[in-house]
Amino acid sequence: MRRHLRLMRIFIGATVSAQLEYRANFVGAVLASLGEAGVALLGISLLFSQPGAQGSVAGPTVKPCW
């Protein structure tokens, strides 16, 4: 397991150092990633927000038969 973690650390370090060679590309990639995360969170919030709901995800209500 340590061998795999060490190998992953080496690969991530190589990727980050390659991205840092061109700082403008790195900054652009970071901003694009943050933008994508923001859009995803906005979509999720729109999906789960319902007018009139009190902060909960409410589905259709079923009235009891009695």
In short:
This protein is mainly α and about 70 residues long.
Word description of this protein:
The protein has 66 residues and is mainly α. 68% of the residues lie in helices and 0% in strands. The protein has two helices and no strands. It has helices at residues 2-20, 23-48. The protein is elongated, with a radius of gyration of 22 Å. 0% of the residues are buried. The mean pLDDT is 82.
Summarize the SSE layout with pairings.
Elements: H1 2-20, H2 23-48
Provide keyphrases for this structure:
66 residues; 68% helix; elongated
Tell me the fraction of residues in β-strands, as a range.
under 5%
Biggest sheet layout: none
Uncertain regions spanning at least 5 consecutive residues: none
Order of helices and strands: HH
User: How would you describe the shape?
Assistant: elongated
**Computed Rg:** 22 Å
| E-strand count | 0
Distance between the termini: 60 Å
Give the overall average pLDDT: 82
Count up the helices: 2
Structural class: mainly alpha
Helix content: 55-70%
